[in-house]
Amino acid sequence: MNTNQIITLVTGGNRGMGLEIVKELSQRGQHVIMGARNLEKGRAAIDKLTKLNLDVDLVQLDVTNSASVTEAAQTVQQKYGYLTILINNAGAVFDARQDPSVVKLENLRDDFAINYFGLVDVSQKMLPLLQKSARAKVINISSMMGSKTEALNPQSSVYKAVAVGYQSAKAAANMYTVQLAKEMLRKNLSITVNAIDTGMVATEFAGADPVQVKKMGGKTVKMGVARTIKLATDLGSKEIATFSNTEGQVGW
Fold first, then answer.
1. For the whole prediction, is pTM greater than 0.85?
2. Which stretch of DSSP H or E encloses residue 108?
């Protein structure tokens, strides 16, 4: 099997940072598969990219639906036979600003369903495809919000943040990143696994108003994906089990 062509799957790829990642990696010559929970919204996003002369594939992928994840993996297997890069970008927050003493359990479950269990499910089902590449990458879009180090640092930008479900799910995803990376090393597999902190980005994430987020110091979407793009386009990098942003390493 010729695996020279870089095949990249981006979950949650039809909007916000996911769409920017899809666009920029496609512009850099990678063949990108956009994972979208809603096919209609995915097709609308694909139309925008087509107008930029970008050839991007679309696959229905709801990371909270195990059957959808299985079907997406089968689609990639049938069409390409392998995968070079998996970018676990899909995420959401359901419990923002609820104090830990009163946070609703249903919100916590929703936070974990997409930010942790969905990420694990996608990673596990795409790993057989990644193993067919000479070199492969798993890039988990995390957040400094999930860093215990920064949550306890009074000088940190996330010190006053309260979204315990989202933060806990991201912290769990960070641990999964570490353990999966260690497994790849232990089994001598050529798959690197790393986590990225995007920082506060001016998107509609969690129902935010991008204009207001920008006024509060939010980065542009292009700035938000910069570290991800750098890591995804450095196929020779052996960097593994790191948590980083554009400024360097982030404390776990």
1. yes
2. helix 105-112
